[in-house]
Amino acid sequence: PHSQVLGIDPQAGLILLQDLGDQSLENLIQNSDPSLKLFFYRQAIDLMIQLQKKGENHPDPTCYAFKRSFDHKLLLWELEHFLEYGIEDRLQIEVSKEERKNYLEASQQLVSEILKIPQSLTHRDFQSRNLMLHGYEFYLIDFQDALMGPYVYDLVALLRDSYINFSPSQVEILGLYYLITRQKEAMFMPEENNFWRHFHLVSLQRKLKDTGRFQYIHTVKKNSDFLKHVPQSLNYVAESLKHLPEYGSIKQLLTTYLPEFKA
Q1: DSSP structure class, residue 114
Q2: What is the pTM of this model?
Q3: Per-residue pLDDT tens digits for 218-249
Q4: Rounded distance, CA 238 to CA 231, Å?
């Protein structure tokens, strides 16, 4: 389910949405044991697959989400955004021309790989703060940025959530649950090795983007609330880089400049 639109006033720029309360998945798992956490996240993945299946079987040509997609320009801009804010603005330095060149070449390669991944309807921010428990069901909110994107993008948003810590074993359990459930629904799914490669490629891009975005919000929007989530985001970057050795130039840049990679 998603929050219902109860009324709109386009001239005033207002949308009246169903009230789902304040019990987000993020709040729900604060005092949950590991087994309960997995239980809730399986439910979230079930909702994600419902969204993807409906998007696959009933695409709406009048819906803006089906008319736009992650493309080369957007993905590359997000990676450049990390360089500008996640390193240069954050540390008040300027990366050398050679290092910038190496990073952008690796970014081009990363974007090219991501664009080869099959796409599906993508919420774009499918994470713990946008999943609300209401009437014993999870509802999805904040769907105005939906578009077509890599089929694993929302899974990455959920399991590489900067606000929640996941162990590698929890990610593996829930990733395989996603894989098996999509297969049961007769939806496209690659071989397991390819699935995990897709997951790590998108994770690397998404979490670099998030790191840069948190710094941008601090510097430009004068809101420092997200800075505390930078270490978790970079931890997920490091985890993905373990599985993507060919992106060593990105790891080298991070190791050179970021304190989180120097330990």
Answers
A1: H
A2: 0.94
A3: 999 999 999 999 999 999 999 999 999 999 99
A4: 10
